[in-house]
Amino acid sequence: MSDDVKLEETVLTEEVLAEVLRQANLLSVRELERAKAKQARTGFSLREVVLPLIPWGRLRRMLNADVQLPDGTRTTLGDVLVEAHWITREQLSEARLDQERAGRALARILLTQGVLTPTRLAEARRYQERTGVSFWRALINLDFALPVEITHAFQAYNQFPFLAEADEDLAERLIAGGHLD
Fold first, then answer.
1. Is the pTM above the cut of 0.70?
2. How far apart are CA 109 and CA 103, in angstroms?
3. Which residues on adjacent β-strands are paired with residue 67?
4. How is 59-92 classified by DSSP, letter by letter?
5. Whole-angstrom Cα distance, residue 140 to residue 124?
6. What is the pLDDT along the chain (181 residues), one digit of tens a residue?
7. Residue 96: is it exposed, middle or buried by C-beta count within 10 angstroms (0-12/13-18/19+)?
């Protein structure tokens, strides 16, 4: 988290949380207006109205997104949602571990395809650590990979996720055997 003390001092009202979700592009202005109308009509909390609108997979991918609170504090969406008790610390940790695993697999695929060099990989990792953005976003921001290349790499990862956990030579053996291209 950027600044634990400031986040604890920030009052995380439902309005603040709604704006944070909009900043992270998880809700459009129109969806937010409809959610507030439903909240007023039903008496449900904003959490009860909004969370079902956002697929968990999409929310998980955005938990490391940088957001700004009304007082100017910059932090991550995940830390805000944990502080507001919208998600648990365990859910945040699991999502971050999954993102790290997917980032490693993405790097391996892009290296194998020749899209990424070891030097650029190291530079992208430094950029990622410095900015807190996801690995794929770092690659795009640095112009090291095109969105379509990242999409193709993620498709390969999603089709064969076991390759991310397997030894690094397995993919090469499957390619050499004509089982993968």
1. no
2. 10
3. 75
4. HHHHTT-EEE-TTS-EEEHHHHHHHTTSS-HHHH
5. 9
6. 444 434 555 678 888 888 888 888 888 999 989 998 999 999 998 889 988 888 888 888 788 777 888 888 888 889 999 999 889 999 999 988 888 888 888 888 888 888 899 999 999 999 988 877 778 888 999 999 988 888 888 777 766 655 555 545 555 666 667 766 6
7. middle
